[in-house]
Fold this protein.
Amino acid sequence: VAAEPTHFTTSAAAALQRLRTRAPRVHCITNTVAQAFTANVLLAVGAIPSMTVAPEEVPDFTAMADALLINLGTLDPTRRSAALAAIEVAKEGGRPWVLDPVFADISRPRLAFARELVRHEPTVLRLNAAEFVALAGRDPTVQGVAACALETLSIVALTGPTDLVTDGLRHALIENGHPLMAKVTAMGCASSAVAASFLAVEHDRMAAIVAGLVVMGVAGERAAAAARGPGSFAVAMLDALAALSPEDVAGSARIR
Amino acid sequence: VAAEPTHFTTSAAAALQRLRTRAPRVHCITNTVAQAFTANVLLAVGAIPSMTVAPEEVPDFTAMADALLINLGTLDPTRRSAALAAIEVAKEGGRPWVLDPVFADISRPRLAFARELVRHEPTVLRLNAAEFVALAGRDPTVQGVAACALETLSIVALTGPTDLVTDGLRHALIENGHPLMAKVTAMGCASSAVAASFLAVEHDRMAAIVAGLVVMGVAGERAAAAARGPGSFAVAMLDALAALSPEDVAGSARIR
Amino acid sequence: VAAEPTHFTTSAAAALQRLRTRAPRVHCITNTVAQAFTANVLLAVGAIPSMTVAPEEVPDFTAMADALLINLGTLDPTRRSAALAAIEVAKEGGRPWVLDPVFADISRPRLAFARELVRHEPTVLRLNAAEFVALAGRDPTVQGVAACALETLSIVALTGPTDLVTDGLRHALIENGHPLMAKVTAMGCASSAVAASFLAVEHDRMAAIVAGLVVMGVAGERAAAAARGPGSFAVAMLDALAALSPEDVAGSARIR
């Protein structure tokens, strides 16, 4: 069943307000391409990022964090060890974590590792249609994604021109966003990090991921209005995220 | 002999048109400093970047790619293994590849590895004058560079205020560009990646590398007109690359 | 005793002039998040960055450099080896070096390594209050920081809304800067790199670090005036650094 959109809009605005007050720490095991932009996006939205992948450091950083991101880009042996160590600490501490299996459709070792991590039951699995098909072996329809959510016990967020978020029973469709978001490297990686930051301040996991994607989508729309191409768009995205108010979210969210 | 400049101008415009239509994949083994900017430059010009250097992932990504970039910055043991694995896959698949031996004039281990890779006959060797002198042991004159191209069986692109491209028999000089390009880190690394993307859509290897350098140079001129310094220049460069039309290339190329 | 502020203002302006003329090389062992922004900040201010952390390459790059930065972010085993190798070469060559123990308050292995490096007597130790407390075991007061400087034989630069620089006998307080500097990842890391670049052109170590922090602070104030948020601020920061004249420094420094 489609979830109540007004509920998610209201909770997204409230979650952004809490995020600004609490400034949650998000530890990111993410790829070297995405690290700097992801850190700047988290700072802009109001969270505090940390980024080390050194396995001996990851337990301390994860223990201090309110949420965890595991992104499988540039998946070297260090990142594999770091991901497993971080997930263990996050689960022990009851911390939410997001898995982003970027490009798992292209690299077979990465796909195998993504499947291993899914068995650890990520709070949220965020991916695009090609990654979903490779990982879940299903069509990227509402039914297929819902079935994946029920199997994995994760919220699944399938992002694209329209984002689909489902826990297997309810679903929400988010229409916010702009095509320029696909022309900036690491925009999807950064969205996963923002979703993690909202999990730190919103206990309803589905409402949290909807809030994160709506905030990114509304900021993307505002940034596009100020941009002259993908370079100025990425810059304007950071400005828009920092300037975004809960009222902006309430007024511009397009959830159905 | 100097090649026919009108031919290269026409083919550069046509190659940009094909690049936009085909959106070739370019796998980049490049340094950690350059990864994000290179990915954004490739997206802006119309290509699809991938960036992993994890040796176990590199074969799958290279097999899916239409062209390969090997940049020797931040040359750790992982990048050495990745480069060798990627070159093997690219050669097996008949894929073009570009070697960028950045700072090989400073690091002796890097210079030795660059010499080893040159023996694998890169499609294009792109470098600056100091790197050329260290690698080729010749003066960076038209004659010296042409001799290097004949010896290595590579197209050699010596970049600087004027870019020189030669296959040993023909040469082209490209006057496009702007001094601010030297004030942004990874601009040269990104130029090599763009050259690789053009090799994927233009079979005349010399025309392809000329097209890549002209596109970067014309975009640089347009970006400089909109910039207030190196920060806004880098942003405007991405905007200019995305906005550049084949007609812009035909009208602004300065090749002799 | 508080040092003579007029002296530091005059020497900062003169040091910027020399930096522009001499274009010193700064080798940076720094974290993957900070590498690109740090390189662009160094290029903007007028220095020449290099960034490899591959242990076999670090000796050649450090031997060619005029100053060295050791930043402990994303502290993997490669970075540990690279740091030790670089410090050895820098000390042999009498080159100044800056230690930035970023987030040493969070990661115990990083804190232990920071303590080991402090025993090698860095020319400058730059850190924030939380890192200082963890590393020095003292309160971040003028007296506490001065005691740390006397013990470590390093200039200590404690940065925050007001920056404190002391050699244990003299101290200077720098009021320049803007709150947006804390909203851009790697801004502190880049400040440490700029401090290293000034050590290459100013023999009075305390004057050098004051110059570096004043230049960053004045550029930050000018960038903020042109910014619409943290994204455009980071871009404007690079533009402001490149445009900053010695006269601007002399006119805008707020040192006491």
User: Anything to note?
Assistant: The radius of gyration of chain C is 16 Å. Chain C is about 55% helix and 15% strand. The interface with chain A takes residues 31-34, 36-37, 73-77, 79, 103, 106-110, 183-186, 227-232, 234-235 of chain C (CB under 8 Å).
